[in-house]
Amino acid sequence: MRDFTVERPQNGVEGVEQFWAQSRFDLRLGLEQGAVGVVFNFGHSLGLNSDAGLLPSGGGIVGAFVWDPLAQHFLLGSLNQRIIAAVTDAAVTETFISDTSLPENVSFLGLAIDSLNQRLLAVVHAFAPLPPFDALAAYDLRSRQRLFLSILPAAAADDDGGSDRPIANDVAVDHKGNAYVTNSAGNYIWKVNDKGEASIFSASPLYTAYPVDRDAPYSFCGLNGIAYVSKGYLLVVQFNTGKMFKVDANDGTARVVVLNEDLMGADDIAFGDDGVVLVVSPVNKLWLLKSEDSWGQGGVYDEIDLDLERFPTGVVVGGRKRNRAYVLYGHVMEGMMGNSSGREVFSIEELRK
């Protein structure tokens, strides 16, 4: 297999074309003068056009992924099967959890590792026309047995038919084992404590204060990716406005993070050990951001063009050599539209620092 390195062109297009022409490449990203001194190499794809990217049991439409630092592997949630697969960074896959007690055809849309309690937290959602179902499942990482299944309560407006049916989407976990789940349709955040007790935690009017282009693709999708910061707050990105919110993890109060540009189509968010925040969009690109004041303000200092046809929806930081970043291409829209046609191939691509 040929390896080579190319300098990233100004618009990134040439590098993207070379990537699809090769099995692997390293693309060095140069930063503008005065930007944060971090350089990433975009490379190594797991499972691109090979059996290495097959999920067991035909569950290859992937809705979410996370890195398990103890077991040293990725965990991926299927969008069209009730399975969570384990994938090593050598691209060896196995079924990690098969939970047939869940309703048929539900999707795993968000995953998080609760390191304190050695649990995997998984957001479960049923897309229409299936009956509504939104829950958080907790699984023991050692026994792989389910510990609890918490049904996420609907807001009064949801029950009265005053808003769209909820879409439980992403999840983050704090240092006490509390989980926070975004509702992309209702624009609020649930909290599930370490005992599995669920409640609506944050429903700030700021989440619906910004204009939405209803003619834009997926304009129904609001609050989306969420990440917990050890200083006691959450960062949440909003798909249809491009806004980022800083949410107090104690009382749920929210404020808008002032950015130098909106992150339109923002889907997932991840923190690096060096304070860099990565935000991925399936309809836009991957952004790298920094803040000097704990996310009262922040700024995009670099961008990476992605292959939007494969619908990149996830980004995590981890790997055996800590602080590596990975992007997930899971062909999510095929699953949502019912066009999976036996799709089994996904890919994970690495950003090397």
Automatic annotation (TrEMBL):
The lineage of its organism: Eukaryota, Viridiplantae, Streptophyta, Embryophyta, Tracheophyta. One of its GO terms (cellular component) is endoplasmic reticulum. It comes from the Eukaryota. InterPro entries: 6-blade_b-propeller_TolB-like, Sensory_adhesion_molecule. It comes from Senna tora. This is SMP-30/Gluconolactonase/LRE-like region.
